[in-house]
Amino acid sequence: MLVRRYGWDGLLLEVDDPAAWFRALRAARERGALSCEEIVPAARTVLLRGVRGEPRWAELAPAAAPPAPPQQVDVPVHWDGPDHDAVAAAWQTDPARVLRETVFTVAFCGFAPGFGYLTGLPERRWLPRLASPRTRVPAGSVALAGPYAGIYPRSSPGGWQLVGRTDAVLFDLDREPPALLAPGTLVRFTDA
C-alpha cells in the first residue's frame, strides 16, 4: 500500500484490492476506528476525504476486522441488446446465462451519477470496448467492457458491448440514497 497526501485533509491509498479496502475502511469508520468524511473507491485507489487524526493502517486493513454483510440488488434484464449475438459468439455460450450465474460487486462508481463498475466476470469473459463508440446508448442498457459489467443510468455516448436492458432506475434524486448501486453492493441479474 502506498499512501499519498491529497489536498489539505485527504489521503489517496494505492492498493491491490480497492474494493476490499473500501469495505474495511467503511466498517472501521462505522465502529469509530477511522474518522473521515468520505471514502471513495476507484479502479486502483481509495480516496479518504476529511481525514482527522493519523490512521493506524495495520488496524484498518481488510483482514483486521470482518466487514458488515453487503447489500444485494437484483436487476431484472431483457436480454435483447444489439451486441447480444456477438457476445454469444465470442463466449460460445448464452450471455444471459453467464450473467445470471455471476454475482457481481460494485467496485466503484463513476462516469455518470448512478453508474457502477461491476466486477466478477472471469478473465476469460472479458471483452474489448467497441472499436467505434455509439453516439447514444439508451438508459438502462446492460453493458460489458474489459473486466466490468455496468448499467447506463441515462442515455449517453458509450463504447461498451450492450447485451440487454433493464427498467430499473439507477439514479433518482427523489430517492434516498439517489443511487441504486453503491460501492460494495452485490448485484444479481435476473430475467425480466
UniProtKB/TrEMBL annotation:
In terms of SUPFAM superfamilies, this protein maps to:
Cyclophilin-like
Which Gene3D superfamilies is this protein grouped with?
3.30.1360.40, Cyclophilin-like
Pfam family, any one:
CT_C_D
Question: Which InterPro entries did the record assign?
Answer: CT_C_D, Cyclophilin-like_dom_sf, PxpB
GO MF assignments: ATP binding; hydrolase activity
What keywords does the record list, in alphabetical order? ATP-binding, Hydrolase, Nucleotide-binding
Specify whether Nucleotide-binding is a keyword of the entry: yes
Which protein, by its recorded name, is this?
Carboxyltransferase domain-containing protein
